[in-house]
Amino acid sequence: MVDFRRLEARLRRAIAGEVRFDKGARGAYAADASNYRQVPIGVVLPRSVEDVVAALAAAREHGAPILARGGGTSQCGQGVNAALVIDWSKYLHRVIGVDPQARLARVEPGAVCDTLREAAERHGLTFAPDPATHSRCTLGGMIGNNSCGPHSVMAGKTVENVERLEVLTYDGARFWCGSNEDISLLEGRKAEIYRGLKSLADRYGDLIRRRFPKIKRRVSGYNLDQLLPENGFHVARALVGTEGSCALTLQAEVRLVQSPRHRVLVVAGFDDIFAAGDAVPRVLAAGPIACEGLDENIIGGLKSRGLRLEDIALLPPGKAWLMLEFGADTKEQAVRLARNVEGILIDDPVLMARIWSIRETGASATALNLGAKGPDPVVGWEDAAVDPMRIGEYLREFTGLVRRFGYRTSIYGHFGDGCIHARIDFELRTREGVAQWRGFLEAAAELVVKYGGSLSGEHGDGQAKAEFLPIMFGPELMQAFREFKALWDPHHRMNPAKLIDPYRADEHLRLGPEYRPVSLKTRFSFESDVGNGFVRATEHCVGMGKCRAEKGGTMCPSYRATREERYSTRGRARLLAEMLRGELITEGWASEDVKEALEWCLGCKGCRSDCPTHTDMAAYKAEFMSHYYETHRRPRQAHSMGRIGEWAPIAAQAPWLFNRISSFGKTIAGVARERPLPQLQASFRSQFKPNGGGGAPVLLFDDTFNNHFRPGTARAAQRVLEAAGCAVRLPRSHVCCGRPYYDYGMLDRAKRALERTLDVLAPELQAGAPVVVLEPGCLSVFRDELRQLMPGDARARQLAGQAIGFAEMVKNLQIPKLNSRILLHGHCHQKALWGTGADLEVLRKAGCEVLAPDTGCCGMSGSFGYRPEFFEASRRIAGLALLPALEAEPQAAVVANGFSCREQIEGLGARRTLHLAEALAEGLDQ
User: Fold this and answer.
1) How far is Cα 287 from Cα 685, in angstroms, rounded to an integer?
2) How far apart are CA 257 and CA 44, in angstroms?
């Protein structure tokens, strides 16, 4: 048994990096994107290679097993183990250098695939393997799993694209390995390993040549074929795909290939997935650089959820599709190649990206059954590969096997390489279901072997496939695999039991028969189209880790600022799941580990839209905090900022006094000293005068912020609406949606505020008048939290339906001309729930040149950016996308509708901001 405390103390003395043995860290790393869960001993985040060497020495002293981890997106369980986790991704993530002449790059293991590809593209080169998780998977993980992707058609798997590796063995040997090295010149442990490898290749060479499948996507097993003389005795490539079970990779030298300067896409429709498979030999003859397939179940699942409908409309008729990418030095050459196959040709890069996103996110987006009817489709049999010339034939037998077992499946994958992904509705929560699943796995393995294929064609073996490798390789080659591992790791301390002498496929299941989560009473209803309740809500996260993407979209700003797994949407979801499981985290709603992780959530709602399964961490945070603070004292910010809707009307009686003392009260209020406070002004309501004219009645919702702090916005909205012929009215009395309450879990207060709002707005709701909302955060309450807090209230449904954003209201009205250059920054809640399309439409209708760069989250997010402990993170988040976008367009007028966004832009970006209403009102004055 490993003495955890002594190991932790030894690690803290030995390394400069971070050592985490707390329950929060262990819970966040207990699962990956697979069906498996194992709680690690602890977590190390090394700052240097020297830290890794020291950490391994400490582990060796205490006999602790080691698990190397990158993006944590493994689907076969190799990314979890009861071991000391070394997470490379936080600090060791550099692309050390690119040599365009030699077409080589050197990387650290934590470097993300897209980071390498972006560096290579500056020289017209690329790294060919690009899994669907390319925005967050790391090179170390890709090397460990022998990852592939759509463009492996162009230049092979990771194994064909690795030239040299610097490795560290469990016993402390550190050296570079490559190909065709002269063993007679080697010394020490390296010479010992190489002699053993040479002997292994000599003894098993003929069997390897005979038994290894002759297909492009043989990923299962160890790459012993790379040790054969005809393959250059390539030790580095033999280590690719070992899933961290032999040695740690410290650096990698990888091959780059020419990146086609111009690419086009052809989408071909077929009557069924079998016909699509039959077409693969024909279309491959045209020379595509990618050939992907997907069936109607993926598309149907997206349609039934109302997702990506505009993108799906671009597909040609059919019940299955092939997506074929062609590349060349010129667009004309690429188009000429593409015209050799039938289908719809797309040459617009934006449309191409939209089509590819269907393929990359479709399976995850449909990972939860609507209505929670029956088992969810899972990755219980993924990525088997056969000869691409036989895909249609194989698919017919495979789907027949699925039906015989009574399952349903969706099929997609890298058809050009013969790799088939399948999400199947295995029942893994009952012992009977697991027994049936085991029978299917064995039959499916035998079917693949019948076709001369590989159990794994992309994701590796891990725990999910390793048990069945003897079916594919036979006992003699399995012995060769054991000898190979023993040469590197004789004591089985490197990711043990994940490939050699493995756990059974049905052990350590995350949601298996032993999964008995605690059912807790909640204030939110957590109703959704995939099932209701808090337990089901936490199951939305399937671990694919899109929240760890370093750019693009909004999710997850706190992860992007910190690179902390526990501050990612996935990490928080894992901690909540551990809380409900009650084994590791036993304090329930009082857990300090869960609370700390959730406090770093900005509540931006980015995961509501960016996450393929629409994990709603903002709601989970509010719910947790509402219970945590039942037994704990709320921080002072809860009263100064969370209850702003209560005290702002009182302070408005003497705004000059509030403004004078506010700067002195920052410490008392819990506000960062660097953060300027908004100035209270005479309220809009106190100045409001209807024009007295006729027109369609509209109710202008005078929210707390645009009433007391930015009344000019409300005045501008009134002017624009009245100029367009509307009769503007205010609610009978001032009411607040209660948005600031949610950050501190004050859901009872929030509900009371909403009840009062419904009471005050009742006459207008009854009359059917639109409720025009200026602040996106308020509108998101009416469209989201309102129905979750008051699910059975008819008035709540009515307000949710009648509440309308300012842009949505005026887009069909007469609006003034501006003829300005506008940079639009969208509020996170708006982007997550209804988008900025109406704002863009209005500004263009006003004659503006509109720039809408991907500005991500501003980093303020209500009170988050005001708190001293989060100020630096808030500034870092703003600096990721928003501030660079502002700097790139110094002359553009900035339109931002969110109060928090405007405060951040004006405070950190030193730019004047306009609400859309103010921008249009300026047009009235021209």
Assistant:
1) 67
2) 34
CA dist 824 and 838 (Å) reads 12
What are the φ and ψ backbone dihedral angles of 832, each rounded to 5 degrees? Answer: -75, -35
Residues in contact with 845: Cβ distance below 8 Å, sequence separation at least 6, in sequence order: 811, 815
In the three-class reduction of DSSP (H, G, I as helix; E, B as strand; rest coil), residue 53 is classed as helix
Helix axis angle, 916-925 to 711-723, nearest 10°: 60
User: First and final CA of the chain: distance in angstroms?
Assistant: 78
Question: In angstroms, what CA-CA distances link 210 with 214, 281, 473?
Answer: 9, 25, 10
Q: For residue range 637-663, what is the model confidence (pLDDT) as tens digits?
A: 999 999 999 999 998 888 887 887 777
Helix, strand, coil share of the chain (percent; to 5):
45, 15, 40
Under a CB-based contact definition with an 8 Å cutoff, are residues 304 and 424 in contact? no
- Asked whether 7 and 42 are in contact (CB, 8 A), the reply is yes
Burial of 663: CB neighbours in 10 Å, binned 0-12, 13-18, 19+: exposed
Single-letter amino acid, residue 687:
Q
The 10s digit of each residue's pLDDT in 665-705 is: 788 889 999 999 899 999 999 999 988 777 899 999 999 99
Tokens of 450: 């019948």
Tokens for 295, please give them.
């069936």
d(CA 308, CA 311): 5
d(CA 165, CA 97): 15
Q: Which two tokens stand for residue 306?
A: 């109302």
* pTM of full prediction above 0.85: yes
Question: Which among 832, 854, 877, 878 is positioned nearest to 616, based on CA atoms?
Answer: 832
Nearest to 163 by CA among 81, 249, 77: 249
Does 372 have pLDDT greater than 70? no
State the average pLDDT for the chain.
95
